[in-house]
Every structure is written in C-alpha cells, then in structure tokens.
Write a structure and sequence with these properties.
Strand content: over 45%
Number of helices: 0
Structural class: mainly beta
Radius of gyration: 13 Å
Largest sheet: 7 strands, mixed
Oligomer: single chain
Length: about 110
Amino acid sequence: QVQLVESGGGLVQPGGSLRLSCTASGGFLRDFVMGWYRQAPGKQRELVAAVMRGNTNYGDSVKGRFTISRDTAKTTLFLQMNNLKPEDTAVYYCFYMGSWGQGTQVTVSS
C-alpha cells in the first residue's frame, strides 16, 4: 500500500495563500489519478482537485483559485491555494492508488 504524507496546512487570513504538499512512497506515476479531497466539520468529503496524465479536474468552488501540480521528480504532489476564503476551512487529504494521507488542517480566519 502506498504511504502518503501531507504537509503545509495552517492558519491563514482570508485572501491569503497556502501550498500543500503530499509525498508518496515510490512516487507518483502519471497514469494513475492523484489529487486532493477536503472535509469540513459536519460536511461530506468533497473533491478539490485531481490530475491524471496531465488532465486536471477541479471542484467548482475552487476553480480559478487552486492549482494542482506535481514536481518534475514525480515525488511530490502540490496544491497551490490562492485567495483563500473562510469556507475553504477543512482537513485536506491527498489520495493516490486507493490510499489516503492522514490529512492536514487548513483554517482560513481573520
């Protein structure tokens, strides 16, 4: 089973930016879907962004603000989050090949 480790969460003011990172044991292969979900308190887990073979898919609420990418060494998956809003507050989870990371908390608050 793939081991995923997220980092980069934290507290940020509205309008600010954060970059989440996710590393995978064995790296990320482009032929498999990889990405990020999030779950806010009392809500269902929702897709934030995913990528496979260069094709990206974003949740409607984050389009134009978030960008998913992978480093050239294929070891780290990133989620660049700009213009953050309070409603982006959630635990963000990396997923890949049926595995999930432990999650990283993102809190957007003034």
